[in-house]
């Protein structure tokens, strides 16, 4: 079945003449209400679908790996769409970028089989949260970095996040509007490191709850400032009570930087980014 919105249901074969196209999207979320299409405000999805529809000469609807919130950025958001339009990958790429605002770009486009689904085929997602740790707010990067003037102890922050590894009930870091049926998530890796004036938090999990990363960062800031102990983060995790945790960190420091898929889909390699951040932490350089 080829639905009016242009997406074939998950698990069904593509009809004859219909292709599944996959792409990576980078975007500055500062001017958007989030990824998801909104009737009352601008969204990244709306802009991407409009640009692709021009190239396809038909309405295009995209599915994404993870819906980011207002002000949150993406360096490697993965999308797919189904279309009867016959275009080369290069034409999809150049044509879409020519019709997108400067704050959104496709980095690659490839055709995949119907077994691929941007959301349901993903095995994990990786987010990075960037904090500019200096006495004064950055004049250049205020839209893309969260500012913290108090000196942060990134070593203590890194020790604290190790308590999040594995599968846990993350209710203490779950926003009230979260619609997920379960608060359980499996964190594969988490680390904090410093790169000059930036403190960077990176976390990989099978999936994330609404505002989960930003709520964790809000707690890490308390530890980095010396207001709370390292063990306090584990205590928060164990109490399953959002009211015991501090305020949510701003959205402007958060980036969706990677989506992992099974090797069979042969996804292109990419720089983890964002571009002004090293792709790996200092601890990995020594290995």
Could you give the topology of this structure?
Elements: E1 19-27, H1 44-56, E2 63-64, E3 73-83, H2 89-98, E4 104-112, E5 124-132, E6 146-147, H3 154-161, E7 166-169, E8 184-195, E9 198-205, H4 212-224, H5 231-239, E10 254-260, H6 282-285
Parallel strand pairs: 3-10, 5-6
Antiparallel strand pairs: 1-3, 1-4, 2-3, 5-9, 5-10, 7-8, 8-9
CATH homologous superfamily heading of the largest domain: Pseudouridine synthase I, catalytic domain, C-terminal subdomain
Rg on CA atoms, Å: 20 Å
Mean pLDDT: 92
The CATH topology of the largest domain corresponds to Alpha-Beta Plaits
Could you describe the largest sheet, including whether it forms a barrel?
A: 10 strands, mixed
Provide a descriptive summary of the structure in words.
With 287 residues, the protein is an alpha+beta fold. The chain has two domains: 19-121, 2-Layer Sandwich (Alpha-Beta Plaits), CATH 3.30.70; 124-256, Alpha-Beta Plaits (2-Layer Sandwich), CATH 3.30.70. 20% of the residues lie in helices and 25% in strands. It has helices at 44-56, 89-98, 154-161, 212-224, 231-239, 282-285; strands at 19-27, 63-64, 73-83, 104-112, 124-132, 146-147, 166-169, 184-195, 198-205, 254-260. Strands 1, 2, 3, 4, 5, 6, 7, 8, 9 and 10 form a ten-stranded mixed beta sheet that branches. The chain is globular, with a radius of gyration of 20 Å. 36% of the residues are buried.
